[in-house]
Design brief:
This protein is of the alpha+beta class. The chain folds into 2 domains: 41 residues; 106 residues, Band 7 domain (Tetrahydropterin Synthase, Chain A, 2-Layer Sandwich), CATH 3.30.479. It is 46% helix and 21% strand. β2 and β3 form a beta hairpin. α3 packs antiparallel against α4.
Length: 170
């Protein structure tokens, strides 16, 4: 037994092989490329689907155009800037409605409940405006505000667009 211990002590232990740093670098590069490729694929596929959704939402069936306001003049007259301001807005509006919303339209005509909501929302929105908001450079904001308020009252997607046909501020 003593001889076995001497032989075991005298026999050198095999040294572990050193891993080549080239293999480690190659593995790290491959992992980095795989991550970069995965991230690139995710980002581009997300952007493409978002842009495709935006393009699709830009196209819709032809809407039903309805002029708002007095049947005789086809315009709305409201006081703006508060009661004491003495300023009046005379505006002609045409609203493009979604023909697929049967709860609002029948044979190209607004149903009475929808007409009431449209008149109420339009008048309240116009009356709540400040004089600064009626600047010609802010008409797109006014149209967007009216459209959002009408869609909120009538249901999402009910109104495609708002067109201002005349605009007089006195």
């Amino acid at each position: 037994m003593a001889e076995e211990e001497k032989d075991a002590a005298a026999a050198p232990e095999p040294e572990p092989k050193k891993k080549s740093p080239i293999i480690l670098v190659a593995v790290l590069v491959l992992v980095g490329l795989a991550l970069a490729g995965g991230i690139s694929y995710f980002v581009t596929s997300k952007l493409v689907t978002d842009s495709a959704a935006n393009v699709e939402s830009g196209y819709h069936d032809p809407g039903v155009f309805i002029k708002l306001g007095d049947a005789k003049e086809g315009q709305i007259v409201v006081n703006v800037g508060g009661i004491k301001s003495g300023r009046f807005l005379k505006i002609g509006l045409v609203v493009e409605f979604n023909p697929g919303k049967k709860s609002n339209l029948a044979d190209g005509v607004l149903l009475p409940p929808a007409q009431t909501k449209v008149d109420d929302v339009t008048l309240n929105t116009l009356r709540s405006l400040k004089l600064e908001e009626l600047d010609a450079s802010k008409q797109d904001e006014l149209k967007a505000k009216l459209k959002d308020n009408l869609n909120e009252a009538l249901g999402p997607g009910s109104v495609y667009d708002i067109y201002i046909t005349s605009f007089v501020l006195q």
